[in-house]
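Predict fold of DUF732 domain-containing protein; 102 aa.
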Amino acid sequence: MTSPLFRAGGTAAVVLVLLSACSGGRPSMDDLESGLTSNASLFPVAEQQAECAAEILLDSDLSDDVLAAVAEADAEAKADLTDADRSALARLQVEVLTTCTG
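Predicted 3D structure, encoded as tokens:
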């Protein structure tokens, strides 16, 4: 026989796991690199710049949603970007161009 407290705690743990799986979080480095080099990229970079650019984006203050749109090369999401998101991406693109050359 299990106590009601244990069952409630177990249920809460399951809910937390399910919610964390749905939220997605920040995309992985590999996902960002793939999105950056995609033909439909919101933030296009050359193949040799992809790893460096992904690191810069992951270290930035961009929201998980914006990073996910970049990783997924989601052209529809581009229309949903705020002016602040667009400005941040433009600044980061300059940083990538000056940092990730070579």
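The first helix runs from residue 4 to 23.
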